[in-house]
Amino acid sequence: MTEPPEASAAPAAADPGPPGDHPDTRPGNPASAAPATGPRSVTARATLAGAVVSALLIVAIVLGSRMLRNFDSALLPYAVATVFLAFGVAYRYTVWISAPGARRLFKQGWRSLFSYENFRQAPTALPKMIATYLGFQKFLGARSHARWAAHQLIFWGCVLAALITFPLTWGWFTFTSGSGSGPGYEMRIWGIKVLGFDSLSVLGWLMFHGLDIAAVLVIPGASYFLWRRMKDRGASTGQRFAYDLVPLIALIVISVTGLLLTFSSIFLHGGGYQFLAILHMVSVVFTLIYIPFGKFFHIVQRPAAVGMQLFKYTGRQDDKVFACRRCEEPIDTGPYVENLRGTMRDLSLDFDAWAEYCPRCKRVLRGSAYLSHVKKGFK
Question: What is the pTM of this model?
């Protein structure tokens, strides 16, 4: 799975020292959890944001389901879980962007995203980055083609499942039959007919088995990552069960139980359907509530990185490439290096000038300083 955007966007040249000294801005790192305004104000602001977003979602469910006329009460647990999901995402996102590093990346990203000058200079840059960075995640292909393929299966499977599940859960989408038993069905969005189809046609099969298709995509992708975390020594060294393995297990359980529901209805005449339905519901509800507080949160963070990538891209287009102070090798764009220095100053780190040196020169300078001030002191 991918890392949070602020971690993946930071260039290697920005490393001011050994790994233990690097100001990691990822949520969950205690160093990044100390916002400038204090923990109480951040908690209050995050709680307010979560409450507002949850309230807006409840209003959208009521209005979108035509005052609950199209709302299926059997899907109530799923709907409640999405409300908790909305609260958790808004809460943690607010806490995340309250950290100095993430806040600067967030502001610069959105500023670049809505910059008319950037659009004028590179009108195709944003659509291209959305397609390659968010959609096809080409940056993963540089690490491993197998990991890229597995991640694509999970990504598109989850996207398809979300596009089907959420609107149905909220009562926004309905499928009705004029005869009561088909085969002719109508698809309605917010009570408005948008499509009529025959359930026995190819389109009808795809409409009613979209979640099965999503499950078939997710299972091999999640299984590959689960296998890799059990067999690959590098992947298993620092893994944590709740953070790294639970998301994969949850995806597999959801997908398998969903397929078993279809198998039960078609081949077993509904045998064991109730048990499978409860097991499937529990796994989905658990996963939705888990998303804001586990590894799945990078799904919410990743879009924020597009603006940051655009910020760096436009800097390169303007030839604003910053060269190392010592060897004059290019490091990154000038605006990005200055943004990094500002973040380090916000964190009260007194070595922000190190951002102006490439990794090799930083190692040389640190070695020279150690030789001059430590080793020679023993003579």
Answer: 0.74
Q: How far is residue 311's CA from residue 314's CA, in Å, rounded to a whole number?
A: 6
Q: What are the tens digits of pLDDT across the range 83-94?
A: 999 999 999 999
CB neighbours of residue 333 within 10 Å: 22
Nearest to 111 by CA among 332, 321, 306: 306
For residue 330, what is the enclosing H or E element?
A: strand 330-333
Pairing of strands 192-198, 173-177: unpaired
CA 11 to chain centre: 20
What's the mean pLDDT in 17-39?
44
* 275: Cβ contacts below 8 Å, ≥ 6 apart: none
**Average pLDDT for 39-67:** 93
**Rounded CA separation 157/248 (Å):** 13
What's the average model confidence in pLDDT over 216-227?
94
CA–CA dist 299, 16 (Å, integer): 28
Cα 301 from Cα 99, distance rounded (Å): 14
H or E element: which one contains 8?
A: helix 5-9
SS3 of residue 52 by DSSP: helix
